[in-house]
């Protein structure tokens, strides 16, 4: 990658330019240094080099290594958008995002590695937003380490937006509101989370879109991104997600948690353009609401 140094950065140390202007993480700076991948005007330099206006900075990133536990698998993936820096996938329910002990194969990451190999994309998988296995919807993935570093900064600043649609059991008294309850690990479990005073700050905004006899369709916006946050929050106020038996939901009419990430918004790491993507609610969630609406009649 190449950058021309502008007048306002004349006299800046290369290390500071990488960190504060280009938003390189310290880990990425170390990787580039170790790889001896820094040149200015075609001459190798260290991060202590003092930049001048008009200099051409070139960074060669080290070859990315794929984790030993990640194996390419030819899996159909619904790619919504792709460019040199990012890829967005509309994930089906029942597919894990990354491999784990319980789900070592059949994941989005496995499928992406095969897609990268087929299309000669020389990177590994950098997940920016992650979804539970049985949650469907949009996933943001950085193609390379630099775009991942930039998006991680945006994410920490709260600039990566996610909106969900969920079907919860029952009817909320307040049709629009905020759930502000800290979420942490449940004692004795490596999977479950719970509302706890020693948990991390967790804020969920919601608005009821539709009600049927037994359910409510809710539009949800996350202010924070704790593990199982939506599921835990609605369960904690007595309205678990339909199909979410881990947190008290019934699986009588829905066999997975009725949760779908329908919108992603973020600033593109290279163009600085604000981007918004949306995805239609899957058929199983639609059928659940329609069948319960019919029973109401």
TrEMBL record:
Key word Isomerase present: yes
EC number: 5.4.99.-
Domain Pseudouridine synthase RsuA/RluA-like: 85-236
Reaction it catalyzes: a uridine in RNA = a pseudouridine in RNA
Record-level Gene Ontology MF annotations: 23S rRNA pseudouridine(1911/1915/1917) synthase activity
CDD domains, sorted: PseudoU_synth_RluA_like
Keywords: Isomerase
Root EC class: isomerase
Function: Responsible for synthesis of pseudouridine from uracil.
Family per similarity comment: Belongs to the pseudouridine synthase RluA family.
Name under which the protein is recorded: Pseudouridine synthase
């Amino acid at each position: 990658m190449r950058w021309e140094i502008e007048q306002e950065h004349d006299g800046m140390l290369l290390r500071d330019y990488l960190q504060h202007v280009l938003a390189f993480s310290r880990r990425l700076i170390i990787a580039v240094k170790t790889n001896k991948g820094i040149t200015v005007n075609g001459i190798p330099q260290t991060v202590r080099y003092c930049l001048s206006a008009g200099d051409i900075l070139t960074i060669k990133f080290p070859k990315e290594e794929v984790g030993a536990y990640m194996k390419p698998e030819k899996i159909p993936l619904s790619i919504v958008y792709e460019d040199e820096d990012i890829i967005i996938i509309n994930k089906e329910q029942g597919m894990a995002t990354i491999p784990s002990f319980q789900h070592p194969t059949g994941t989005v990451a496995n499928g992406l590695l095969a897609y990268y190999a087929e299309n000669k994309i020389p990177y590994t998988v950098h997940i920016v937003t992650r979804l539970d296995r049985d949650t469907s919807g949009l996933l943001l993935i950085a193609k390379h380490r630099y775009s991942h570093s930039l998006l991680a900064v945006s994410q920490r600043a709260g600039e990566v937006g996610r909106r969900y649609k969920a079907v919860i059991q029952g009817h909320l008294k307040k049709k629009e509101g905020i759930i502000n309850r800290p979420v942490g690990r449940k004692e004795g479990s490596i999977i479950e989370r719970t509302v706890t005073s020693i948990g991390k700050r967790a804020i969920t905004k919601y608005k009821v879109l539709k009600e049927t006899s037994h359910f409510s369709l809710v539009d949800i916006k996350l202010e924070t991104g704790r593990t199982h946050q939506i599921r835990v929050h609605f369960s904690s106020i007595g309205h678990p997600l339909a199909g979410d038996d881990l947190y008290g939901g019934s699986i009588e009419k829905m066999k997975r948690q009725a949760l779908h990430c329908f919108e992603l918004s973020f600033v593109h790491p290279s163009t600085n353009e604000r981007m918004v993507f949306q995805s239609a609610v899957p058929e199983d969630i639609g059928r659940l609401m329609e069948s319960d609406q019919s029973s109401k009649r």
